[in-house]
Every structure is written in structure tokens, then in C-alpha cells.
Specification:
about 20% strand; pyruvate-formate lyase- activating enzyme; globular; 3-stranded antiparallel beta sheet; alpha/beta; disordered N terminus
Length: about 475
């Protein structure tokens, strides 16, 4: 990729201030529909979840396989920007008991499903997956794969912390089939790093990125956040320019989700007044996007950018891009099983979330019980709306040309969409809407027009982060 750091064209026209003010509202990121606050937990049961997963597995295991997400919740320090479920500890003796529980949970699921599962996608998330030693990670993955089949077009990935990911971590996981790794960068300004309690020099990121490439990883990703406390437009520019010198294959460039009312003290390491305004955040995004595009990255769905050589870009071109609780993935699997405390599973027909307390998780696993504590079984309407929102989030368009994409309240939704059309954010063509280039930053708002559950019951308190 050619880089011209002196010609990025920083002076770009920011988005119309009135649109930012109009659409900067609290809204979901749509890793699922229905979104978690609108799950029907009162009628949900563990038995329903098992039935929905068995149905999905029988329909898809032999053809496409399933996805496996493993939540590794331990971190040595607390990053105050993080909204994930985690346990802060420096005691590494917690690793073995947790791995033992993960393997037992996988055993419970395998017994439920009956036949050997085929794994197409496997992702290690956290927490900090590289909190675990290379030997323990090797044992975990080896034991999981020993009793599973691996799909021909499999993709294994993990999240690495630049400060503690070693060459042995990278080599060990590579030898097990991992070819994609993402590193959390966030921002390189020291004041911003101090505010979010994530001190990590550029040299650390450079080291692990180059190590991953040397070992043979085919997709190295960096995560960058805008809208962080004390962060300026200049900070975003500097971070992206430094990132460009390392040429990661894909970049997650997303807005900081400030939800301290949900995450407690973890997001109170700074004052709300230290956060950039909605207009400043939009300028940070616009200039960051322009720089990324100038050096060869293509926008993928919401908040993601990739080089043309990366599988995520190819999936967008082929319209096989998918979005679930793991984020964007190059292809869809109907079933996704989440292992570990707080993990969320998706059978396509239902969602199920594990208990968040590690101690309760251990207790249920020891009893041989799938440790689910809440979930939702999708009805026919849910499945149709889910399809529309997935289309918008992955392809920036959706249609109702066929009867299976029509729902009773579609006329009311189309009326809401007319306002987006008047603002130049989408275009109508026959029975189809396409989000314009101008409208892409507002994809969450457009999806909200389809969100019937949100429309029927507006939240009385703020449940979601701001869309801008």
C-alpha cells in the first residue's frame, strides 16, 4: 500500500451540524435483533434454547458448521473505556480452573447436539485472552478441537493485548490454526491513555504487529476508538498516521460507548465533561475515515475498514458479510455457541446468555447444567426484522421484494424512512432502500426505524450509547 502522509487532505468539510444534532440519540449497535434489553426473558426457558439450538445444528452443521466464541474474562488492570464483562486480577492460578470449566461446558453442548460439531469460526475474546499463558491456551484449543471437526474454510482469531502478547503466544496459536489477530490500540496520546488507564506505547504495537506478520498471520487488525476523554481531532490524526505505517489488514474505527450506568465504576475514571461533544466526535470520525480511505482502506459495514486483500472486504464485495455478537465476520453460520461466563449464543432462532458471575458459572457447570440465565426465542416477525437490520448493517441496503421480507407494520416503517430520504441519507428504488454515502454514519439510526420493539416501547431510561 502506498502512503502519502503529507497529502491526507485534513481540511475536510464536516457533516452538517444540524444532522449531527438531530440524529445523535441513544441507540443500539445491533449485534442482534431483538437487542438484549428487549429480549422476552419472561417466557424464555433453557429447554426452549436447547430445542432451538438442536434445530439449527441439524439444519446447518453438515453444510456450514458453527461458530464458537470463547470468553476469557481476566485482565490484570482495568481499562476505563471498556464495556466488557471482566475480572481484574494478577493471580494467574485462575487460568486452569476456568479452562476446566470451559471444556466441561463444551462437553455438555456436545452431548446435547449428539453428533460431532464442525467448527467454522473460533474466536477468543475477553477480557484479555493473552492473560492466559501460551501453554494453557494450547491445552484449551487442543482439547476443544480433539472432539470436533474443522471446516475446510475455517477462520480462527483472537484478541491480543499489545503489552502482554508474546512471540510464544503468537506462535502457539498460529500452530493451532489461528491466522487472524486484532490488537487494541485505542489512541496513542499519553493523556488519553492515562484517562482510560491503558498505557501502551506505539513501540509495543509495532512489535506485536511485525511479529504476527513474521510468523505468518494473514490478517492483523487494529482497534482505534474516537470520542475518548480528552481526545482531539489531532490525536485521531496522529493515531491513524502511526497506524498507517504498520499497514494492518483491517481496522475497527469506532465510537466510544459511554454507558457508565450499565458498567458501574469501570467507566468513571474521568468526568463526562472530559468527553468530546457529538459534533467533535463526528469530525474525528470524518477526518479519520478520509485518511483511511486515502491510504487504501475500504469502509466495511459500520465502524470497520479493510484492505482489498482482506477477507472482510472480499465478503462485502460478495455480499456474504455477516454480523453477530462477535462483530463482523466474512461469512454466516446459522449457529454460534458462546462458552464462558457472560458469553452469548445464537441459534438464529434464539439467543441465550450465560451467567456473568464466574463463581455461579463454575457452580452450574459442575452440576452439568448449561449456564444460561436469560435469552429470547425469535418469532416470525423478529426473524423478518432481523433480516432487514442485518442487510442494512452489512450491505447498507434492504428490500421487501419477496413476501418473506414483508411484515404488517412495513407501511409505518416506510413513513419513518421518508425523513431519512429527505435528509439525503437513503434512496428508495422500487421495494428497496439503499443508504447513501452521506447516510452511512447514521446506519444505526436507520436501523432503529425498523426496530419494532423499540418503537412500541420507548425506554424510560437510557439503555444504549449515543449513535454519534
Amino acid at each position: 500500500m502506498t502512503r502519502h502522509t503529507s497529502n491526507f487532505g485534513y481540511q475536510i468539510k464536516s457533516m452538517c451540524h444540524s444532522l449531527v444534532n438531530k440524529y445523535n440519540v441513544a441507540g443500539p449497535r445491533y449485534t442482534s435483533y431483538p437487542t438484549v434489553p428487549y429480549w422476552d426473558i419472561d417466557t424464555f426457558s433453557l429447554q426452549q434454547w436447547k430445542m432451538s439450538l438442536k434445530q439449527s445444528f441439524s439444519e446447518s452443521n453438515s453444510s456450514e458448521g458453527l461458530s464458537l466464541y470463547i470468553h476469557l474474562p481476566f485482565c490484570e488492570t482495568l481499562c476505563t473505556f471498556c464495556g466488557c464483562h471482566k475480572r481484574i486480577t494478577k493471580r494467574h492460578e485462575v487460568e486452569s480452573p476456568y479452562i476446566k470449566a470451559l471444556l466441561k461446558e463444551w462437553s455438555i453442548y456436545r452431548n446435547l447436539l449428539g453428533e460431532k460439531p464442525k467448527i467454522k469460526e473460533l474466536h477468543l475474546g475477553g477480557g484479555t485472552p493473552t492473560f492466559f499463558s501460551p501453554d494453557n491456551l494450547k491445552f484449551l484449543i487442543s482439547e476443544l478441537l480433539k472432539v470436533s471437526e474443522i471446516a475446510e474454510d475455517y477462520e480462527f482469531s483472537f484478541e491480543g493485548h499489545p503489552n502482554n502478547t508474546t512471540e510464544l503466544h503468537l506462535q502457539t496459536l498460529f500452530d493451532l490454526g489461528f491466522r487472524r489477530v486484532s490488537f487494541g490500540v485505542q489512541d496513542y496520546n499519553l493523556k488519553v491513555q492515562a484517562a482510560i488507564n491503558r498505557i501502551q506505547p506505539f513501540e509495543n504495537v509495532k512489535r506485536v504487529t511485525e511479529l504476527a506478520r513474521k510468523i505468518g498471520y494473514t490478517s492483523v487488525g487494529h482497534d482505534i476508538i474516537f470520542g475518548l476523554p480528552f481526545q482531539s481531532k489531532e490525536d485521531v490524526i496522529e493515531t491513524i498516521i502511526k497506524t498507517g505505517t504498520l499497514i494492518p489488514d483491517r481496522i475497527a474505527f469506532y465510537s466510544y460507548a459511554h454507558v457508565p450506568w450499565i458498567k458501574g465504576n469501570g467507566q468513571r475514571g474521568f468526568n463526562d465533561s472530559d468527553l468530546p461533544s457529538g459534533e467533535s466526535k463526528r469530525q474525528q470520525y470524518e477526518i479519520g475515515k478520509r485518511i483511511l480511505e486515502n491510504v487504501g482502506y475500504k469502509e466495511i459495514g459500520m465502524d470497520h475498514f479493510a484492505l482489498k486483500s482482506d477477507s472482510l472486504y472480499k465478503a462485502m464485495q460478495n455480499e456474504t458479510l455477516h454480523r453477530n455478537f462477535m462483530g463482523y465476520t466474512p461469512s454466516k453460520t446459522q449457529a454460534m455457541i458462546g462458552l464462558g461466563a457472560s458469553s452469548i449464543s445464537d441459534s438464529w432462532y434464539g439467543f441465550a446468555q450465560n451467567v456473568k458471575s464466574i463463581e455461579e458459572y463454575y457452580h452450574l457447570i459442575e452440576e452439568g447444567i448449561i449456564p444460561v440465565y436469560r435469552g429470547h426465542i425469535l418469532n416470525t416477525e423478529d426473524l423478518i426484522i432481523r433480516g432487514h437490520i442485518l442487510n442494512l448493517m452489512c450491505n447498507f441496503k434492504t428490500s421487501w421484494l419477496t413476501n418473506d421480507m414483508v411484515f404488517e407494520e412495513l407501511p409505518e416503517v416506510l413513513i419513518k424512512l421518508k425523513e431519512f430520504e429527505q435528509d439525503g441519507l437513503l434512496e428508495f428504488e422500487r421495494k428497496q432502500v439503499t443508504i447513501t454515502e452521506k447516510g452511512k454514519p447514521f446506519v444505526r439510526n436507520i436501523c432503529m426505524a425498523f426496530d419494532l420493539l423499540l418503537q412500541r416501547k420507548k425506554p424510560e431510561t437510557q439503555l444504549f450509547s449515543m449513535t454519534i
